[in-house]
Amino acid sequence: MEDIIHHRRIYRTLNRAVGMAAMVGATCLGLLLATFLIGRIVPIDPVLAVVGDKASAEVYQRVRLELGLHLPLWRQFFIYVKAILSGDFGVSVLTARPVIEDIARVFPATVELAVIATLIGVFSGIPLGIFSAVRQGSLLDHLARIMGLIGYSLPIFWLGLMGLMVFYARLNLLPGPGRVDVFYENMVDPVTGFLLIDCILAGEWGIFRNALSHIILPASLLGYYSMAYLSRMTRSLMIAQLGQEYILTARVKGIAEWRVIWGHALDNCRIPLITVIAMSFGSLLEGSVLTETVFSWPGLGQYLTNSLLNADMNAVLGGTLVVGAIFLGINLFSDFLYEFLDPRAR
Amino acid sequence: MKKTVWIALVLSLLAANTLFAATPGDTLVMASKLDDIITLDPAEIFEFTGAELAANMYDRLIGYDVEDAGKIFGVVAESWDISKDGRTYSFKIWDGMKFASGNKLTADDVVFSLQRVIKLNKSPAFLLTQFGFTPANMDERIVKTGDYTVKLVIDKPYAPAFFLYCLTATPGSIVDRQEALKHAENGDAGHGWLKTHSAGSGPFALTIWKPSEILILAANAQYHSKKPAMKRIIVRHVPESATQRILLEKGDIDMARNIQPDDLKGLSENPSIRIRKKVKGALYYLGLNQKNRYLKIPQVRQALKYLIDYAGMESTILSGKAVVHQAFLPGGFLGALAETPFSLDVEKAKGLLKEAGLENGFSVTMDVRNTEPSISMAVAIQASFALAGVKLEIIPGEGKQVLTKYRDRAHDIFIGRWGPDYMDPHTNADTFARNPDNSDAGQSKTMAWRNAWDIPGMTRKADAAVLEKDPATRVRMYLEMQREHQKSAPFIFMFQEIEILAERANVNGFPLGPSFDSNFYRFITK
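^ Those are the sequences you sent over. The predicted structure of the assembly is below.
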């Protein structure tokens, strides 16, 4: 009997794994097809991106053939998918390097920023949301609301420039734009691509401090927006929970108030909260174009925008695929966390 | 206690001067937009930033005086002479020049460099192939005649200035043959490697290049002329003008290259910042498609030339970034016409439209790239066209998209910016005054072709002017063509661009040339 249950469980797990793999595959293929078609439908001549406006007719024709643009659309797509499957994302027109290398260079810069920003957002936004839910109408609640509103409404571009103006130019507390001072540039070997981690690996503490001070301003800025979002979401989730009967029961039973809030109520918010955090982290991973522009941060957002504006289709498709894959990954991960945290799903 | 902290905070915010941090005395730090660099191989470079960098990493056979483009002098070439039939150019090269690698610069390098441009056949290759060089004949026409002598044979006896100016352009850069071949793959003459590395004899060599991030040049210890005062040039990619301004005021950079008019006003009041301007060769113009039934009427073309507020745009939206210029050769070029016969004259325009039978005006569209200053210019033109009843619909689009439409001749009016490719007048005459085949299948997509302007007569004149040997006669021919152009062409030339540079007051000596490939870092001192 136990054997049968055991088999069933294996079968079920296997079945789900296959289902999930099929879903991931189908999503990726759909993503590929959609980006490929958009790239071909936009009224931009991809040859122009490669040869420029002034090339001779002969050069233009040669590149057109090289890019395979004379072939029917389905064959172009087929060739593209085949290349992707063998790990070849092509060469970027703008940087003259393989797209994969480019992404490996710009993506860590974005991830570094996103991770720190999310940490700031989580550790300030969630407590803030809880406090304002518990003490509705208090000064702190109002303050949190105002901060949230500012976060929603102020253009990040302006706030970034103001941040530079105040903390860098006037107060001299923080360094200016870029990932590290120019004089430290290229002093640490890019092992992982994450500058902070590479500094630790190399034992370069001076550069580490410099890089850390460079990341504070842009990360705080993104963290502020993430905080504004998370605190509002936490507040409404918590208010919903605090009005439930089990909270009343707990309170009647005489359980300490801090345990009611941080234990019972928050515990039941964590699943939707995970989704909210994952979504906010995911959107930061696409790269915040405006923040990256103001702070000259060489991340994925700038890379993708620049590629798109220059019709650098290999880079756009490669970048989109990576972002798509990451969104999928984050979704799968939060699904996994659900199962882990939600006893009903176990 | 808390109060004092707050007061200190407010006071420091109000302090007018930002805290100053200086860069090292032997290093120039510059903020620029590096996102237009798609290659650093001089056989392929066709972008402003890349051309400027190549000019500082590579030497060319000859150069021209940035203050007086008419003066041509030897750089790698010690001397040259031209055969009687005007087709053979013999160059004598300096003995003793070295590349940054330490290799000697010889005739082999010159032949290799010019031949690889033709063999690779990248976008700017036409600068050389227009003289009849092909991969098949280049071994007979680009010849080493001794260790330090080279002979170049061109197909027609062109005006010498035409060929010589083309040799001063980026594809004329002399590349280190041994170094390039060491990194060659599949017979690409080192192209793949040179896209991201340098192998020249110029005053600087490339040390670090991270696309859209940072670029560092180091002084070339082998440089043949006076060693530059700057040991390093650091160029950081800073796309935002306001950020460039903050960095410059703070002193973390010595030079900002992309300051916009808004930020310029603020900077001009700062005594420790100097603002410099240089008229460049690029022109802003309107192209009127002759396939449009209204625009093909001569009176309509002329009427529109009187419906633009040139002076108003120059002093407002283009403030400091451009000057009025109304001929197809930019000021500073041989034979450029300085006359500006057009100004906003609504009555005259209305009269011309009446002659064309369009006294009630007409509707027309204009394709505009969605960047400044094009958008603001388009809006201003829309307003002034309306004064005579011409209804202009603006179609904004992304740069490459608008360009694709223009190249397909699918526009009505196109607002464009054209930069010359080399210093000879033929560069603009070739595109604005030549249209050898006006059919839709026409292969040379000159600006005249794109606007479907069929001009066999003017094409012949342009072809004759480029063969004229006497400079004075040649100047007369170009002046005449430009006047005729102003009377009938479907092009409305409006402005000539000005490059703006903001630098710390302690930075001296950076010469700004008439094109980006003559901005030389080696004269900079601090």
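DSSP finds 19 helices and 17 strands in chain B. The CA atoms of residues 60 and 454 of chain B lie 37 Å apart.

Shout if you want it in another format.
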